[in-house]
C-alpha cells in the first residue's frame, strides 16, 4: 500500500497555476525527495498532502485516508513539518516536546520519557529548559523536527528540513530520516539542497511549474546538471506546446 | 485515543499556554487589581468633600447609599466591560496568533483534532475569565469590608456580590464571539479592532435607547451603568440572550476550526 498519495492534484491561486495534474506516491520504507525551483509548487503540494489546502482538483491520501480529517489512530502514525513547526515560543524545549507528544496521541505518563529521548536525539540537551523563543533558527528547526517525529511516525512529510541547520544538524536529520525509513516509514522531503537530497533519497521527483517533469537517480556527481537539464527541457516542451496551441487556434 | 482523552490533552496544553501568556498575565493583574481599586476609589472620590464640578456630577450616583453596596455596584459596572475587554484580547492572541504565525497549519493531521483544540481553547478561556471575575469580586469585597470596618458600617451587600459576579461572567462570556472573529480574520489586530468596534457600537445602541436587547449592553445596563430605570428594564430574557453568546460562539468556532483550510 502507498502511504502518501497525491492523485491528479491541481490547484490555482487566482489565475496562477500552482499544481498541474500532479500525481505522486510514496511507499513505506522509501524516502522520496521533491525538488524544484522557488515557486515550483513543492510547498503547495505538501500543504495539499497534509490537508491544509483543499486542492481545486484531485485527491490526497495519507495512509489511505483524507488528510483533512484523519481518524485519531491514523493521525497518531503521521508526522509533518511544512512551513511553521508545532513549536510555541512561550514554552520551553521540553514543554514543546511534551505537548507535541500528547497531540500525537501519546499518553501523559509517556510524554516526559519521549521528550527526553527526543532532546538527546536532536542534540538539544543544553537548551532543554530554554524557552523556544530564545533558540537560534537552527535549533528551532531541530525542535520542530523533533516534535514531528518523537512518536516514530510511519508516514512523514518534511518541508526543507535542513534549510537552517548546521552540518551537525544536517547529519542528525539525515540519520533520523534514514532510520525511520529503514523501520518502514514512508518519507517525503522537499529540498533545495541537491547534495543533501542525493544522500538521503531513494527517489527524486522534479517539480516544475506545478508539474512532475521527471525523476532523477540519486547517485552520481552531476545531479545539479541533470536537474537543470530536466527543467530546461520542461520549459522548452511547454513553449512548443503553447506555440502549437496558438497555431491551431489561428 | 478517545474523545475524552483528546480533550484532556488539549485542555492541559491550552492551560499551559495560558499560564505562559503575557496577555493573560497582564489582563489578570489589571482585572484583579485595577477593578477593585476603581470600585473603592471612585466611591471615595464621589463622597469626598473635595469632589466638585463635572467629576462630582458624573459620580453623583455613587455619592449616596450603603457604602459596600455602592462599591459592588461600581465593581459590577466596570467588570462587565473589563472582563469583555480582557477576554477579547486573550482570544485574539489565543486563536489569532496560531493563524498568523502558521502553527495552526501544524495542528493538522494530529491525533487530537483541531475542533477539540478549539473547544479546549474556549473552555480554558472561560475558566480563566471566570476565575478572574470571582477573584476580582472577592478582592473588591475584602477592600470594601476594610473600608466599611474603618468607617464603622457593617458589610451587608451579599446580593450585590452576586450581581457583580454575574455581570462579570456575562461580559467575559461575550468575549468568545471574538474567537470566531480571530478565526475568520486570521489576525490578532483585526480581532482587537472588532472588539473596539463592538464597544463603540454598544455605546451608540445604548444612546439610541436599544440597549436592553443588545447582548453587549445588557450586562452593564443591568449592573446600573445606565441608571436605575435602565437597570430595571433588563429582565431574565435580556440576560439569557447575553448568556447565549458564549455557547453559540463556541459552536461556531469549533465548526470553523474543523473546516479550516488554506493555512
From TrEMBL, chain A:
Top-level taxon in the UniProt lineage: Bacteria
Cited Pfam families: ABC_tran (PF00005)
PROSITE patterns to which the protein is assigned, alphabetical: ABC_TRANSPORTER_2 (PS50893)
Domain ABC transporter residue range list: 4-234
Gene3D superfamilies for this protein: P-loop containing nucleotide triphosphate hydrolases (3.40.50.300)
GO MF terms, alphabetically ordered: ATP binding; ATP hydrolysis activity
Keyword set, alphabetical order: ATP-binding, Nucleotide-binding, Transport
InterPro entries named in the record: AAA+_ATPase, ABC_transporter-like_ATP-bd, P-loop_NTPase
Similarity section: Belongs to the ABC transporter superfamily.
Name listed for the protein in its UniProt record: ABC transporter domain-containing protein
Organism of provenance: Promicromonospora soli
Automatic annotation (TrEMBL), chain B:
Alphabetically ordered keywords of this record: Membrane, Transmembrane, Transmembrane helix
Membrane-spanning parts: 26-47, 67-93, 123-149, 161-182, 189-210, 230-254
Protein name: ABC-2 type transport system permease protein
Amino acid at each position: 500500500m502507498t502511504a502518501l498519495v497525491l492523485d491528479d492534484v491541481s490547484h490555482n491561486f487566482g489565475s496562477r497555476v500552482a499544481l498541474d495534474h500532479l500525481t505522486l506516491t510514496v511507499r513505506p520504507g522509501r524516502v522520496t525527495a521533491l525538488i524544484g525551483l522557488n515557486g515550483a509548487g513543492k510547498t503547495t503540494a505538501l500543504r495539499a498532502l497534509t490537508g491544509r489546502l483543499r486542492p481545486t482538483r484531485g485527491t490526497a491520501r495519507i495512509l489511505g485516508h483524507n488528510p483533512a480529517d484523519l481518524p485519531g489512530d491514523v493521525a497518531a502514525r503521521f508526522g509533518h513539518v511544512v512551513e511553521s513547526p508545532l513549536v510555541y515560543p512561550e514554552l520551553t524545549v521540553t514543554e514543546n516536546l511534551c505537548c507535541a507528544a500528547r497531540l500525537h496521541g501519546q499518553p501523559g505518563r509517556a510524554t516526559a520519557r519521549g521528550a527526553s529521548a527526543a532532546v538527546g536525539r536532536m542534540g538539544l540537551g543544553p537548551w532543554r529548559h530554554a524557552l523556544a523563543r530564545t533558540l537560534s533558527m537552527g535549533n528551532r528547526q531541530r525542535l520542530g523536527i523533533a516534535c514531528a517525529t518523537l512518536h516514530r511516525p510511519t508516514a512523514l512529510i518534511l518541508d526543507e528540513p535542513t534549510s537552517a541547520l548546521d552540518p551537525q544538524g544536517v547529519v542528525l536529520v539525515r540519520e533520523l530520516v534514514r532510520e525511520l525509513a529503514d523501520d518502514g516509514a514512508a518519507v517525503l522531503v522537499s529540498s533545495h539542497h541537491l547534495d543533501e537530497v542525493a544522500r538521503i533519497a531513494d527517489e527524486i521527483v522534479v517539480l516544475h511549474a506545478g508539474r512532475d517533469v521527471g525523476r532523477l537517480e540519486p547517485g552520481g556527481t552531476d545531479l545539479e546538471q541533470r536537474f537543470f537539464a530536466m527543467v530546461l527541457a520542461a520549459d522548452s516542451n511547454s513553449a512548443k506546446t503553447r506555440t502549437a496551441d496558438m497555431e491551431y487556434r489561428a | 485515543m478517545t474523545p475524552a482523552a483528546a480533550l484532556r490533552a488539549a485542555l492541559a496544553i491550552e492551560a499551559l499556554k495560558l499560564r505562559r501568556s503575557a496577555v493573560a498575565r497582564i489582563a489578570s493583574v489589571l482585572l484583579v487589581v485595577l477593578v477593585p481599586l476603581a470600585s473603592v476609589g471612585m466611591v471615595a472620590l464621589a463622597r469626598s468633600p473635595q469632589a466638585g464640578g463635572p467629576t462630582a456630577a458624573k459620580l453623583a450616583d455613587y455619592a449616596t447609599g450603603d457604602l459596600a453596596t455602592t462599591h459592588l455596584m461600581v465593581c459590577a459596572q466596570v467588570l462587565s466591560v473589563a472582563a469583555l475587554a480582557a477576554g477579547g484580547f486573550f482570544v485574539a492572541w489565543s486563536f489569532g496568533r496560531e493563524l498568523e504565525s502558521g502553527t495552526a497549519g501544524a495542528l493538522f493531521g494530529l491525533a487530537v483534532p483541531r475542533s477539540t483544540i478549539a473547544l479546549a481553547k474556549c473552555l480554558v478561556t472561560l475558566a480563566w475569565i471566570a476565575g478572574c471575575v470571582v477573584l476580582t469580586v472577592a478582592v473588591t469585597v475584602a477592600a470594601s469590608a476594610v473600608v466599611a470596618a474603618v468607617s464603622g458600617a457593617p458589610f451587608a451587600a451579599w446580593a450585590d456580590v452576586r450581581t457583580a459576579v454575574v455581570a462579570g461572567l456575562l461580559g467575559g462570556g461575550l468575549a468568545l464571539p471574538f474567537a470566531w472573529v480571530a478565526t475568520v480574520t486570521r489576525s490578532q489586530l483585526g480581532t482587537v479592532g472588532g472588539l473596539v468596534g463592538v464597544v463603540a457600537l454598544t455605546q451608540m445602541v445604548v444612546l439610541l435607547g436599544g440597549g436592553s436587547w443588545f447582548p453587549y449592553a445588557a450586562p452593564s445596563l443591568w449592573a446600573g451603568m445606565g441608571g436605575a430605570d435602565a437597570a430595571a428594564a433588563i429582565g431574565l430574557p435580556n440576560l439569557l440572550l447575553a448568556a447565549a453568546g458564549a455557547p453559540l460562539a463556541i459552536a461556531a468556532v469549533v465548526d470553523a476550526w474543523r473546516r479550516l483550510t488554506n493555512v
